[in-house]
Design goal:
alpha+beta, Fructose-1,6-Bisphosphatase, Chain A, domain 1, D-Maltodextrin-Binding Protein, domain 2, 2 domains, eight-stranded mixed sheet, about 35% helix, binds 2,5-anhydro-1,6-di-O-phosphono-D-glucitol, binds manganese (II) ion
Length: about 350
């Protein structure tokens, strides 16, 4: 069997794909890969390291932080600090952005938005979790980074990716030239190319949504769920419902098998639950590069204007034909103008 190509070899090989000075993206991805290996070890032995369960603190989202949320956050931020390429980190676990002013980072040009541990509610029950990252370049040449350099649209991403800590640990990323997946070979401690040029099937038979919130879904979402459940041999319906509760794991499954993931507006989260900067945008970049579609039900995710670090968005993401069908339902049954005014009205009354 041919010796597998490591992540490091692959990045160097593809370095010319990446604009700007050679090597910068390589070092950034290397730094993220180092932290991923450390977090992977902790995820695999969490039960033995006393880092399961709640940390007893809440993040800016008002969510109870798990010990592993905090541990993973520390590992990724310190790897980025030591690598010297990153000047700003936006993390789900930090209220404000983290300004990296270490000596080695004084000429750093890159901004990393990160969800250090996605799906943390699954940690204590041994179900797949992940990490999501997004890489932007600062607009100003040096000095203090202004907030508008951080709140860039998803189309400005230079790279994005995720790590999935599942039955095997994989790192999947794009720099805008397709999507490639690497599996961690723990015997040599290297991520090795296992899924070159990943493409999501144009359609699929899996729909992924938390139907527990059905009663408050927009009518268009209800109509799409009904469409998925109708018997129709020609279109392979009824589809199968699969919901892991880890965004990364649900989306990764859909990239491999085909499918759609929806986290729409709900009563608890009228603007959607998933965060634009470090969940929706990075996976929208990946899915589009793999031939899929990602929208908020009406608008391309990557075109949404960010206005704050932890902004949320509804998300419909996956196989092209399935997302298009769901968008048709939204257009027919929950026309955007009505939907936006409903969300705005609710947001005015409900704190995020
Ligand atoms: P995180 O653990 O980073 O907060 O993300 C959890 C997210 C996402 O991974 C998942 O799809 C969603 O929360 C599940 O939410 P519900 O439990 O409301 O379905
Ligand atoms: Mn998450
Ligand atoms: Mn998280």
């Amino acid at each position: 069997m041919a010796v597998a190509k490591t992540l490091g070899q692959f990045i160097i090989e593809k370095q010319s794909d990446f604009p700007y000075k050679k090597g910068e993206i390589s070092r950034l991805l290397r730094d993220l890969g180092i932290a991923a290996k450390i977090v992977n070890k902790a995820v695999n032995k969490a039960g033995l390291m006393g880092i399961l369960g709640e940390a007893g603190t809440q993040n800016v989202q008002g969510e109870n932080q798990k010990k592993l949320d905090i541990y993973a956050n520390q590992q990724f931020i310190s790897a980025l600090k030591n690598g010297g390429e990153c000047c700003i980190v936006v993390s789900e676990e930090n209220d404000d952005f983290v300004y990296i002013d270490s000596e080695i980072s004084k000429n750093a040009k890159y901004i990393v938005a990160i969800d250090p541990l996605d799906g943390s509610s699954n940690i204590d029950v041994n179900v797949s979790v992940g990490t999501v990252f997004s890489i932007y370049r600062r607009k100003s040449p040096a000095g203090k980074v202004a907030i508008d350099e951080i709140l860039q649209k998803g189309t400005e991403q230079l790279a994005s990716g995720y790590i999935i800590y599942g039955s095997s640990t994989m790192l999947v990323y794009t720099t805008g030239k397709g999507v490639n997946g690497f599996t961690l070979d723990t015997s040599i401690g290297e991520f090795c190319l296992s899924h070159p040029d990943m493409r999501i099937p144009v359609t699929g038979q899996v729909y992924s949504i938390n139907e527990g919130y059905y009663s408050h879904f927009p009518e268009g979402v209800k109509q799409y769920i009904k469409y998925c459940q109708v018997e129709d041999k020609d279109t392979y319906r009824p589809y199968t419902s699969r919901y892991i509760g880890s965004f990364v794991a649900d989306v990764h499954r859909n990239i491999i098998q085909g499918g759609i993931f929806i986290y729409p507006s709900t009563a608890q989260a009228p603007g959607g639950k998933l965060r634009l900067l470090y969940e929706c945008n990075p996976l929208a970049f990946i899915i589009e590069q793999a031939g899929g579609v990602a929208s908020d039900g009406y608008n391309r995710i990557l075109e949404l204007e960010p206005y704050e670090l932890h902004q949320r968005s509804p998300i419909f993401i996956g196989s092209r034909e399935m997302v298009k069908k769901a968008e048709e339902m939204m257009d027919s049954f929950s026309p955007q103008i009505k939907y936006v005014s409903m969300v705005k009205a609710k947001n005015i009354n409900i704190q995020p």
